[in-house]
Amino acid sequence: MTENLRAIATRVLLDIQENQRSLTAVLPYYQEQVKPEDRALLQELSFGTCRWFQRLDFIQASLLHRPLRKRDNAARILINLGLYQLLFTRIPAHAAIHSTVDAAPDLGMKHLKGLINGLLRQAQRDQEGLQSDTSAPVEVQFSHPDWIVHKLKANWPDHYQEILQANNERPPLTLRINTGLTCRETFLEQLQAQGIDAVATQFSPTGVTLTTPCDVKMLPGFQEGWFTVQDEAAQLCTTLLDLKPGQRVLDACAAPGGKTCAIRLTEPNLAQLVAVEKDPQRAERINENLERLNIHADVIAADAMDTATWWDGQAFDRILLDAPCSATGVIRRHPDIKLLRREQDIAELAKLQLHLLEAVWPTLKANGILVYATCSVFPQENTRIIERFQAKMNDVDVIPLEPEQYPWGINTTVGKQLLPQSNSHDGFFYACLRKH
Ligand SMILES: C[S@@+](CC[C@H](N)C(=O)[O-])C[C@H]1O[C@@H](n2cnc3c(N)ncnc32)[C@H](O)[C@@H]1O
């Protein structure tokens, strides 16, 4: 007999918390254990409970007479799953409570059935009060770890609430049109003919955002490679690279290859496109994505920092350094970041980002352009990296990104910051550097 779905969802969250693994990494394994018709619900329960975890924890604590013991973490998660269903979904209350209580024996906590049942029934009775309570601190209301809220408030005093709000929304599905095969207007017409609502993106000339996300395999032209899934902010990278035929281009941190593909599709006549990725399994994903689109890049599984192992000594005209980062601009797509990321990670990531920049810079030609990108909203990983790099080097010019030419994002001292927007682009940072 298959295990109760709420028990499996509890295991997903336990795996994330206890093994520090991402939701994207763990979910496919658990999806294999449920019936195909239950997979969407498992995804919804796992994503939703991560998204609202801090708020659910707060509500749970307010309903418990005595705090749970540390070793009852599975019960804490299961109760949060139950509260999520009651307070944030349309699952009928009786079904939410019944199925959640029923999961307890599967998780070895039959003895807690009464407690879970009582607590969820109490939440059901006070559903309205719990949902509308605005007396809780901002980190609870917006369900983020304290340190993220404090850092956002310090970094973006005029914008932090809208960032927190956007982080809790369901992300839009945005596609990048492969303009070598079709054009955006034709594609939009085809979507409309099939009754699928979509709009052209505001800033990216190649983007289309679907009003309601769906399985992209069902969309016209999926097999033919008419589009790839790519957020609008990520699409903007090719508008900054100033790609021309005959150039040699390096994508230094490339997997899963969204931007590698975008670079090749934007300028099919490059002399060479090299995609370097440290993680060999993720490097394979670049090859799969290139194959689906029937395009080519030289994919190398190597540490970009260790140039001696992968660079042939011929300098690049263009480099994209889409650096590993805190991903705090894409929390709405990866709500597990709220459970996994620690404050001290940011300084570690900043060190890595600066080292990567220093390592790949010598592979850039004189007069060449390097685009530095992250999907972080913290200046520590963005403007500060560029400022620190500039202070160390004597051959770096920061190219100004004038609002007239690039009418998006917030201009910072050395680049542009996009903050996550409701129904629009993710949070992203770009800086353009020229070597002289
Ligand atoms: C932000 S993701 C890149 C996303 C990619 N550019 C895209 O658009 O699909 C950063 C990638 O850098 C890789 N990475 C981290 N450290 C690296 C290093 N030292 N050398 C090469 N790749 C690295 C990570 O494994 C991850 O796949």
Automatic annotation (TrEMBL):
Which EC main class describes this enzyme? transferase
Return one Gene Ontology term, BP aspect. Answer: rRNA base methylation
The source's domain of life comes to Bacteria
Note one Pfam family from the annotation: Methyltr_RsmB-F
Primary residence: cytoplasm
The reactions it catalyses are: cytidine(967) in 16S rRNA + S-adenosyl-L-methionine = 5-methylcytidine(967) in 16S rRNA + S-adenosyl-L-homocysteine + H(+)
- Active site location: C375
**Enzyme Commission designation:** 2.1.1.176
Q: Which Gene3D superfamilies match?
A: Helix hairpin bin, NusB-like, Sun protein, domain 3, Vaccinia Virus protein VP39
Entry GO MF terms: RNA binding; rRNA (cytosine-C5-)-methyltransferase activity
The cellular location(s) given in this protein's UniProt record come to: Cytoplasm
Return the protein name. Answer: 16S rRNA (cytosine(967)-C(5))-methyltransferase
State the organism named in the record.
Answer: Oleiphilus messinensis
Q: Upper taxonomic classification of the species?
A: Bacteria, Pseudomonadati, Pseudomonadota, Gammaproteobacteria, Oceanospirillales
